Amino acid sequence: MKQTTLIFGIILIVLGLATLGYEGYSSFSTKESTVSAPDGEATAGTKTTIPLRPIAGGLALACGFVLVLVSNKKAATQ
After folding, report:
1. What is the chain's Cα-based Rg?
2. Which 3 state secondary structure label does DSSP give 39?
3. Which of 19, 44, 48, 50 is spaced 20 to 30 A from 72 at the CA atom?
4. To 10 degrees, what angle do helices 2-21 and 52-77 make?
């Protein structure tokens, strides 16, 4: 169990670092109705950008460190 936790933690650290190194952002577009008139309707599009990859990379990195620390603590107490 200790070995599996350690390996999984190291994999998460490597994936987290790789994800943080890749500067990708997720974005999506939405259309909103701005003006309604009897003859028609005007819409405006907005583009929203979320730094999803850096957030996921940071979470993976943090979880990896926790798993490595937990596996080392288990090894020290046994």
Report:
1. 22
2. coil
3. 19
4. 160
- Lookup: tokens for 46: 């907005």
Nearest of 60, 57, 53, 75 to residue 10 by alpha carbon: 60
Q: Which helix (H) or strand (E) holds 50?
A: strand 41-50
Tokens of 41: 């309707």
Residue 64's SS3 state is helix
Please give the model's pTM, rounded to 2 decimal places.
0.61
What ranges do the domains of the chain cover?
2-77
Cβ neighbours around 60 below 10 Å, total:
20
CA 18, CA 13: separation in Å to the nearest integer? Answer: 9
65 CB burial (10 A radius; 0-12, 13-18, 19+): middle
Band of pLDDT at residue 21, cut at 50, 70 and 90: confident
